[in-house]
Amino acid sequence: MRDRSVYMEYNFASKNLRKGKFPTGYVFRSILREEGHFWEEVMDKAFGNYSAGDFEDVMVDNFSYLPERVYILFDEANVPCGTASAWLQPWIWGDDCGYIIFVGVIPSHCGKGLGTEMVQHLNHVIKNRGQEKVLLDVVSDNYSAIKSYLNVGFKPLLTDKSQVAIWEEVFAQLSMTPVEFSAEIRIKKDNPHPPRPYLLDLREQGYMVSKPEYQIIKASKDFPNRLMEFLDGFNKGENGVSGSNVEAPNFSIESYINKLMDMENPEKLKPGYVAESNYWLLDDQGDVIGISKIRHDLTKELLDRGGHISYYLKKSERGKGIGTKLLEKTIYEAKKNGLEKVLITTDADNFSSIKIILNNNGELEDIHRDAKSEKEYHRYWIKL
């Protein structure tokens, strides 16, 4: 009986990757280990025969498992409706190749192209991880999925000679002219699954097993490491985030944090101010490297310039794609706070900030000119 699965490959060389685009209100994010029940729920609805405990057995008890590699898609009602994982199998495919596994969408959400969009998103994740290409496997008679993957740049990958005939049948069924692909047979390495310690074990022992991960936390009295050093770096303010004069005689971390807490309480606001929530971006060492704020309402002035979200990233961390992550995570917090779209403004010559906004699906509404400085600034909306 022949293997009903075929393999497809996407090479990142000379490719213009498109980020996954999901319907308004949908969120595609990695899940924590304790959120594994979301994965079990989606997998059972999409494929059947999955139950409690399978996440630990199938995903966690694996050399390649790290929490940031397993993604769940949540719909506009925050109901899990899809999954895909940015995996690695270096003992089979080598270190230069990522592997997307368990792409599934629950029946009520099929037919919307969500599987393809999840794969597109994970292509970026795997490329940013440093791999040169990505593989996935698909059942050979799942013609709609194969067609979608072909349309976004995946090509057949042959792992044995019998698959030549299978692909001829696939293209015939799709009424498509066969795409050009390598006739070379790529033999799967017949190596056993690596023994412990797995990657998660090594991380827990203090080893760096992947690129640094970043987390966003709400500002609180339990402030992060190196906050004073961070504040000292942006006294003049930038991107709508004001600094604090740490050299002032009466300055203290406690007074600064109390001010942030007061800004969230409408009863403590000065006339003309709106409530805002502040967030810190932490690196993998727990040091603060960025800050963002969400304004829950807009005055006439903020609607013109200022917007819902402002952010600032430590200068030494710029140019690494971290700013895009900071805004992405802040947008997710804004959605949790009930906002359906957010306005972000930035100076017309702040090209790095413009790139960050565009990377998060910002749509330029218009360009205004400041009456005093005569400098132009852009106004972008992002639908959540």
Structural overview:
The protein is of the alpha+beta class and 384 residues long. It folds into two domains: 5-204, Aminopeptidase; 215-383, Aminopeptidase (3-Layer(aba) Sandwich), CATH 3.40.630.30. The protein has twelve helices and 14 strands. The strands form three sheets. The chain has a seven-stranded mixed sheet, with helices on both faces. It has a four-stranded antiparallel sheet with strand order 8-9-10-11, sandwiched between helices. Strands 12-14-13 form a three-stranded antiparallel sheet. The protein is globular and about 75 Å long.
Topology (SSEs and partners):
Blueprint: E1 5-11, E2 27-30, H1 36-47, H2 54-60, E3 70-74, E4 80-88, H3 90-93, E5 97-105, H4 114-128, E6 133-139, H5 143-151, E7 155-157, H6 162-174, H7 199-204, E8 215-218, H8 227-232, H9 253-263, E9 276-282, E10 288-295, H10 300-304, E11 309-313, H11 322-336, E12 341-347, H12 351-359, E13 363-369, E14 376-383
Parallel strand pairs: 5-6
Antiparallel strand pairs: 1-6, 1-7, 2-3, 3-4, 4-5, 8-9, 9-10, 10-11, 12-14, 13-14
